[in-house]
């Protein structure tokens, strides 16, 4: 049976990540970085890698990792979400999952040891069931094409590029690879557009194994993102509760008004459920087959909207203060709204669930619904 | 104090079954099971338990069920088992526990709850039913309402006002009322579904011996809070499988009837499925917390979500059925011991579900409780304390 609690190792891991973030990534520092054009905090990332070993968490020991698992990864993501920490951990986990699925063992060892950063070169909004035709393969092999809105890439890192027929590794430092920063809604998670102009590539897998590896990676992304969303939502709830307890209007704490209380109570209920859903998704990632896909689809159908509501309530109940640049609420709002699109919107995941649990739409023929006409 | 293990309890059950025939006299078997401490294992020895961790109860229940032993029909005495018993355990005297707990657990005596009144719903502490001392007795006059099982019950837990001059939370006392006593009149209270699960209870000059008072005079509110807490945290039965609740009815209907499907309703069905699965996992997580000895406040979340979901899903089902949704099975007045949610038409489910956000604490009161007790938000200014 799925274990939805946190064990003592997981709580210890949470404690060390939280302490590290409190010391080195207070929100004032995260906010200040938004204006510098240096969105990622390389020093913080180094600390997480060196002191906590985050890049090796989900890599089995025989590949040089810690052999922990996705439950632990999820706990780290909760804390990173809670701090809107600007580090490329999620992308690294997703790309590592692809490497694990297609036996990139030499690369895997480098990644686990954090000798190289690695990212999957797909748009951050890509759902697990997406098709890949933006990049084509030429002789060499070399890659041509354009991928937009990619998250968590690092200069000089390794890009894993899915194409129509396979999965390729490309060095981001190659001259034939041009990355253009995007002004992203969530400035704490910068996006880039990437152009490949006959970029030399190494083939990691082709055909079905490649497709399976990419789907597994994106499924892991969707499942684990729920824990980041949970962390975002928890910060929003905690911060708002603390604020409405001390903010007075009409001679009493704002938090004593029923209209305020009931919104926060509803949010707490949703968080209680989001925690169970996110733990379930992380726990099921170890499974093969449809259970992992189902748990991931549920996670994004449920937790994304909860994080958005939490951030919106946070802004609203802080009143004017919540609408200012100098209060961190907007960082969480932007993170929440961006993650609700990442790895596919809730609607995409409900459509996936409809297939996975056999609740077909009207006029479904062979499992394919015409969503335009609804027939 | 617990050195009990699942294996140890299984062994105790096996030993018990060697000397007690599960196919023999039902009441005798249940009484013996109580006396052996295998009734509710987390209760203390001598009161039907062993002082074992609560989560081991399932081990004992499973072991008896496997042996084909009769159970105590817990659904027929839900108020007694879920609310009266934990209150008695905490607040009643040794003699009171000895008199009441065993026949309560075996189901020989059904219990009901005389709390709500026409003028005291969410604001329960404003009950007006009076109890006046008279010799060694109290004389009780008043009216209670929404009393399930009153027509079957032998005993009732009763909240009555013993000091009308004290501030309202301090003038209450908690009693056990004999439902067979003269002056107790039970009338069915017919509800929107056409049936009567509940009753109105009229108390006219009912004599209750002082030995049936639970807790001190004037301390009834504290005792009642124990009862109400158990109402809100009670999670009985087994964990639901996926689609195990009302959402399963909706999902099966959707699969069986392609002719009913529309695009808009498809979206709503998927939304409902997602919410129901999230609520199911939250309830499962709550069980795991309790089993790990870390019970949290998540029970309030489970109840709020359950009410909202059952209403939304049953409403969706009626709408999905379209023209069929206009047909109800039967308005005949019945006296069900519990609602028949799966055996009747969708309209019944829809109507019965309206009560889910009212009974056992309205959703509004529950939200306030969550905000104040879980989140620590300040209470609203009050004029009645």
Automatic annotation (TrEMBL), chain A:
It comes from Micromonospora andamanensis. Belongs to the acyl-CoA dehydrogenase family. InterPro entries: AcylCo_DH-like_C, AcylCo_DH/oxidase_C, AcylCoA_DH/ox_N, AcylCoA_DH/ox_N_sf, AcylCoA_DH/oxidase_NM_dom_sf. The keyword Oxidoreductase applies. It holds the Pfam family Acyl-CoA_dh_N. Residues 9-90 form the Acyl-CoA dehydrogenase/oxidase N-terminal domain. Signal peptide: none annotated. Keywords: FAD, Flavoprotein, Oxidoreductase. This is Acyl-CoA dehydrogenase.
From TrEMBL, chain B:
Residues 18-108 form the Acyl-CoA dehydrogenase/oxidase N-terminal domain. Keywords: FAD, Flavoprotein, Oxidoreductase. InterPro entries: Acyl-CoA_Oxase/DH_mid-dom (IPR006091), Acyl-CoA_Oxase/DH_mid-dom_sf (IPR046373), AcylCo_DH-like_C (IPR036250), AcylCo_DH/oxidase_C (IPR009075), AcylCoA_DH/ox_N (IPR013786), AcylCoA_DH/ox_N_sf (IPR037069), AcylCoA_DH/oxidase_NM_dom_sf (IPR009100), Mycobact_Acyl-CoA_DH (IPR052161). Residues 218-375 form the Acyl-CoA dehydrogenase/oxidase C-terminal domain. Pfam families: Acyl-CoA_dh_1, Acyl-CoA_dh_M, Acyl-CoA_dh_N. It comes from the Bacteria. Residues 112-201 form the Acyl-CoA oxidase/dehydrogenase middle domain. Its cofactor is FAD. Belongs to the acyl-CoA dehydrogenase family. This is Acyl-CoA dehydrogenase.
